[in-house]
Amino acid sequence: MRGGGLWQLGQSLTRRVARPGAVPRRGLAAEAEAAAPLKKTVLHDFHVENGGKMVPFAGWSMPIQYKDSIMDSTLNCRSHGSLFDVSHMCGLSLKGKNSVPFLEKLVVADVAGLRPGSGTLTVFTNEKGGTIDDSVITKVTDDHIYLVVNAGCRDKDLAHIGAHMEAFRAKGGDVSWHIHDERSLLALQGPLAAPVLQLLTKDDLSKIYFGEFRTPVINGAHCFLTRTGYTGEDGFEISVPSENAVELAKAILEKSQGKIRLTGLGARDSLRLEAGLCLYGNDMEQHVTAVEAGLSWAIGKRRRAEGGFLGADVILKQLAEGPAVRRVGFFSAGPPPRSHSEIVTGTGENIGEVTSGGFSPCLKKNIAMGYVKSGFHKPGTEVKIVIRGKSYDAAVTKMPFVPTKYYKPT
């Protein structure tokens, strides 16, 4: 059946985001408070006008897909491009001469070692080394840090940062913050992202590499531009004043001559899964460390030597001795694996659990990621995944499943 696997995935995700009481998640989060009025981004009516199917997501009304299928949207992003409204995510700035040492108490990244105008993925840790949230942070200048946190984690993240900031300032630390609720966030992804966006700005985008940040004028609006994304493709996240967001979205679609399409949360989930990227609430939780999640590379060399962040003793011990469990990828037979599917050995011994899974539109096969006991994490290891009481063959494989195409210096 054409697109059948993705249709089922879309239906599953639609049910998941509408289920009351589930944990909010980044790509396709369940609605934590189904009874609460949903917030709307400034592009909400624009989504509806363009056929967006709106669903509850982390307290917001967001498009899960448009008129095309999730399968077609995923493939179009890889071949041409996608425009996502991610304005539900929370952008904020930390300012002050002590912004860097303050933030380094909360995250594993070597923020001090970043060049001005560059950024990195990091995680906020708790006292046990678990992950409060993942975030892309950018050192704009030595006394200005810009970061974006997940929509479903906004309240707990701001409470966490705010409490530590209050204590830090009480000891004389110079740091303050601004939450960018006056701005909207668009994610432009795919091979046409750069050439199309170049038509709307005088800044030379060829000089901006993956992870770098600039403040160009785009389509007449002063924007924050980060060359990053959540699909594995080259692309940008564009923070734009909300009063300019709809016009910018229209301009991008028009300049692409229909090749870049509005794309919803359904394809965003399949794209990030193909790229082997974690989804907070699925693949990372408060009890999961960065080491277990396969994000050891995000822990700066200096931070490994010095520690100084919450839960550092736990994380540094795991770096030295190895974690008890590890996040890995899988190819599998049978129905597409889903979150919480059990992973067992050939003899039925439980060794882990799937955290994300589905049918890959690009590879035309089942892919999944999950956690297994150390020793079963090596590529090629044969396992079984249990779906609705029946075991299906699977094998551990390297990630990403689809090669990434980040724009980096040659």
TrEMBL record:
Residues in coiled coil: none
Keyword Secreted appears in the UniProt entry: no
Residue span(s) of domain GCVT N-terminal: 43-301
Subcellular location: Mitochondrion
Domain of life: Eukaryota
Protein EC: 2.1.2.10
Annotated catalysed reactions: N(6)-[(R)-S(8)-aminomethyldihydrolipoyl]-L-lysyl-[protein] + (6S)-5,6,7,8-tetrahydrofolate = N(6)-[(R)-dihydrolipoyl]-L-lysyl-[protein] + (6R)-5,10-methylene-5,6,7,8-tetrahydrofolate + NH4(+)
GO biological process: glycine catabolic process
A single GO molecular function term of this UniProt record: transaminase activity
InterPro entries attached to this UniProt entry: GcvT, GcvT/YgfZ/DmdA, GcvT/YgfZ_C, GcvT_C, GCVT_N, TrmE/GcvT-like
Boundaries of every Aminomethyltransferase C-terminal domain copy: 326-402
GO cellular component assignments: glycine cleavage complex; mitochondrion
SUPFAM superfamilies: Aminomethyltransferase beta-barrel domain, Folate-binding domain
Annotated keywords: Aminotransferase, Mitochondrion, Transferase, Transit peptide
Family matches, as NCBIfam families: gcvT (TIGR00528), PRK00389.1 (NF001567)
Function as written in the Swiss-Prot or TrEMBL entry: The glycine cleavage system catalyzes the degradation of glycine.
Protein name: Aminomethyltransferase
The species this protein was found in: Colocasia esculenta (Wild taro)
